[in-house]
Amino acid sequence: MNLVSTYVIGAGVTGLSFAVTLGYGKVLESNPGLGGKASSYNMNTHVGKFTFDIGGHWFHHQNAPKVLQLLEGLSLEKHARQAFVYWEGGLYDFPLQQSYKTHADNSLVQQIDRELAALGQKEATKSQNYSDMLLNSYGPTLFERFFRDYNVKMFGVSDLSQIQIGKYEEIRNVRTNQKTEGYNSYFYYPKDPLGAQAIPVHLAKDVQVRFNSQVQSIHLNQRTISINKQTSPWETIISTIPLPRLVSMIADVDCGIAYLSQQLRASRGLILNLGVKRNLLHANKSWIYLAEMKYHFYRIGFYSNVQPDMAPEGYSSMYVECSPLFFKNKQEALYIVPQVIRDLISIGMIEDESDIVTLKPIYLEQNYCLPDNQVTSLIQSYLQQYGIYSIGRYGSWHWSSQHEDMQQAISLADELRRTINFRKLLKV
Ligand SMILES: Cc1cc2nc3c(=O)[nH]c(=O)nc-3n(C[C@H](O)[C@H](O)[C@H](O)COP(=O)(O)OP(=O)(O)OC[C@H]3O[C@@H](n4cnc5c(N)ncnc54)[C@H](O)[C@@H]3O)c2cc1C
Questions:
Q1: How far, in Å, is the centroid of ligand 1 from the Cα of 37?
Q2: Domains in the chain, please, with CATH?
Q3: Which of the listed residues 67, 218, 393 should we mutate to test ligand 1's pocket, taking the one with most ligand atoms within 8 A of CB?
Q4: Centroid of ligand 1 to alpha carbon of 115 (angstroms)
Q5: What single-letter DSSP state applies at residue 181?
Q6: Of 298, 284, 349, which Cα lies nearest the Cα of 85?
Q7: Which of 46, 273, 305, 330 is the most exposed place for a label (fewest CB within 10 A)?
Q8: pLDDT for 186-218, tens place per residue?
């Protein structure tokens, strides 16, 4: 591996973690700023400054010492999760598979009790698809009255049996007979005015990033990369951009691989960031899940309940994750914003439109990747033969969080460094 011609595409948490661990790599970033999906911005308004991320960007590291080593010196504050479920007109504690017991309809509670008890006695079976996994985890009543519609809204896919189970989906859907609070009963967030972006900014301290550097095409046989219309030689490429986009950039890619990459699907996303007048319903909440189809969103959360500096006194800085069931492209996504605001008023999160001080919709072409493990690993193995490693949430086309992407980048950098040292030893 020749360090001089090693390129890292993308200055999000994955690309930066790779570059900082390897101690080298030209990091190319098409944007003028750092962080990719983990970036933040400020809005100065007549009531003061609001800070927003791209949706809640909470850090859920568990047993990830190497990841924490990269973040040494950054103040990460621990927060207990205050999550709720808006279900059948009431607010329940998260997770619902434990709090349903407070539902007013006693016969419904008993029905769910029976179904969960039966599941608890059943041997854990390998589920065939996402729908099957939810049914095997929560039983038919909770599935039909909450989990099906919540997931349909989140993925924007009406038939959940079309979705394969990736390893991350299995971690998140805990079997109910294990008394557990889920994978994120507490989380971390930078104690820093930058918000979530403090993480990539910290990682980039010792990394040189070339901003406004857009990779346009890659040649496998000529081993050239075109960046802002300039061509350079490469030996190794670490890419963190969406896998289908990477494949489409390769001029001489195998046509079978090109075909396969076009089969990969992801849900689109619309995050609506709002600076609003604070009301009692906002108090002590990190985020709330909503399954009912009449609401155009599946989750809302409050940055300023985690980091109070993110909104002026008396105001909240919040995000609304809108459902891709209601749009197919950016233009259609923007059309639903007025309806989303009406929905927020109808559940009392804002009293009326005049409570909104600032509003910004952020459209995401890819939000949740719908895993297809066989296709992804075929494409990744093909690329690796040429020295191209596609990693991170969008590079690996799976559902992962920041610490998992960082860990993947660290492991790859360690592995490549071992190869370099081994070659030096053999004087190859
Ligand atoms: C709405 C939302 C909420 C999330 N919430 C959480 C959460 O609470 N906790 C958590 O841990 N994770 C969360 N995540 C996941 C987290 O954002 C990702 O795990 C992580 O940011 C992925 O980082 P990455 O570096 O792999 O990719 P990205 O952040 O996507 O970085 C890729 C970079 O490549 C650049 N790029 C693209 N094309 C080119 C090109 N042609 N040339 C050069 N550069 C290019 C992009 O500009 C971008 O900066 C969330 C994600 C989303 C979308």
A1: 4
A2: 3-32+211-265+370-426 (3.50.50.60), 42-81+186-194+268-364 (3.90.660.10), 96-172 (no CATH)
A3: 393
A4: 39
A5: -
A6: 298
A7: 46
A8: 899 999 999 999 999 999 998 999 999 999 999
